[in-house]
Structures are given as C-alpha cells and as structure tokens.
Design goal:
The complex is a heterodimer of chains A (114) and B (114).
Chain A (H helix, E strand, L loop, with lengths): L2 E3 L4 E5 L4 E3 L2 E3 L5 E8 L6 E7 L7 E2 L2 E6 L4 E6 L8 E9 L6 E2 L3 E6 L1
Parallel strand pairs in A: 2-12
Antiparallel strand pairs in A: 1-4, 3-9, 5-6, 5-10, 7-8, 8-9, 10-11, 10-12
Chain B lengths: L4 E3 L2 E4 L5 E6 L6 E7 L6 E7 L2 E4 L8 E4 L6 E5 L8 E8 L8 E2 L3 E5 L1
Parallel strand pairs in B: 2-11
Antiparallel strand pairs in B: 1-3, 3-8, 4-5, 4-9, 5-6, 7-8, 9-10, 9-11
Classes of the chains: A mainly beta (114), B mainly beta (114).
C-alpha cells in the first residue's frame, strides 16, 4: 500500500521569500503520479502541480515547482515569492498507474507572514 | 467552465437519521471519487467509480455507507443511521480518465451529526 509522509505539521515563511514543503512517499509501484493540493480555510482542494514517476524533468507551474528525487522517494513542493494568499494547508498525494489508490499525506499548514 | 459541485454544502443530522450527499462531476469526466476528511487531517479515500461502475469501495467504513452513480455522471453518497463519528467533510473529485490523471475536487459537504 502507498503511504505519504509530510513531516512538517506547520511552516512559517516571510512574504516574498521561497519555502519548501517536504513530502516523501512509499510505494512498490513502478509507475505512479505525485500531486500537490492546496486547501485554504474555505475548504476547497485546489490542484497545484503533478509529477509523473517517469518524468525526467521537475514539474513547474508558475510559482510552484516540484523537486522530484526518485531515488530518495521525495517530492518536495517549492513555492517561490510567497504571497499572503498562499497561507493554507498543503497536501501531497499519490496514485498508482491505474489512477486508483489515491492517498493523501497528513498535510502541512503554511502561514505567510507580512 | 463548471467545476465539480456538491450539495448540500452543510448538513446537520440527528444521530440515526439517513443522509444523502450529491456530487455533480465535471462534464465528460469518467472517474469519480469520494473522500472523507476529518477535522485537521488529510482526505481519506472512500470509493471510486469509472462511469457507472463502482470499481473500488474498499474505503467505505461500514455497510451504512453506500454510493451510486447510476448513469455515469451524478453520484450520491448515502449514509444510513448516521453516528457522531460520521461527522466530517465529504469531498467528491472527478478526473477525465483513469491512470495518473489529475483529480478536481468539489467544495465538499460538511456533515455534522448531533
């Protein structure tokens, strides 16, 4: 079974600085996907970024980039130039090659300070 | 374009009552997922549909939980004889196809069982 670990329950970052949110995963699948979602206090889950296990380049989406280190089973999210609106819960998740067994980590609460 | 919608957004039930939660996925999305999110935790998988077929219901916590998607679009999650431990946010997500495809989430239904 897949497992996602997020070791940082809470993080603080100064506005305009970069921050890295950690995620490690445990899977026996050869093919899998890795995802990051943002959940503001309003509750909706907002998709941020996706990395496929066979993608050789790290995924980037605007201010978000995924630092994918396959050998270490690590998929950290990097947010550049933090904004106050980035304050939210961030969840790392993975699925298997069938798009099933979608598993979320426990989340990291990010607080951006003015 | 319309995203995933869920209704009701909030539901208060007395213990023992039956509830029905509705999910309207993004039009054309084949896959539909239900998750349960307890306060302060990440979402936990409940069940998965591909079109009208329920391919995985391994996450349903008990036989009081039942989900259907009879025409391959709208889905209903039914909880019979609700108990206090059922209080949570129930999230619905849809994806275009199976297999490492991004899931798009609805706003959730917050269920409170008194």
């Amino acid at each position: 079974a897949q497992k996602i670990t997020q070791t940082q329950p809470g993080m603080f970052v100064q506005e305009k600085e970069a921050v890295t949110l950690d995620c490690t995963y445990d899977t026996s699948d050869q093919s899998y996907g890795l995802f990051w979602y943002k959940q503001p206090s309003s509750g909706e889950m907002i998709f941020l970024i996706y990395q496929g296990s066979y993608d050789e380049q790290n995924a980037t989406e605007g201010r978000y980039s995924l630092n994918f280190q396959k050998a270490r089973k690590s998929a950290n999210l990097v947010i550049s130039a933090s904004q106050l609106g980035d304050s939210a819960m961030y969840f790392c998740a993975s699925d298997d090659s069938y798009g099933q067994n979608f598993v979320f980590g426990p989340g990291t609460r990010l607080s951006v300070l003015p | 374009g319309a995203g995933v919608s869920q209704s009701p957004r909030y539901k208060v039930a007395k213990r023992g009552q039956d509830v029905a939660l509705r999910c309207d996925p993004i039009s054309g999305h084949v896959s539909l997922f239900w998750y349960q999110q307890a306060l302060g935790q990440g979402p936990e998988f409940l069940t998965y549909f591909q079109n009208e077929a329920q391919l995985d219901k391994s996450g349903l916590p008990s036989d009081r939980f039942f989900a259907e998607r009879p025409e391959g679009s709208v889905s209903t999650l039914k909880i019979q004889r609700t108990q206090q431990e059922d209080s949570a946010v129930y999230l619905c997500a849809s994806s275009l196809a199976r297999g490492q495809d991004t899931q798009y989430f609805g706003p959730g239904t917050r269920l409170t069982v008194l």
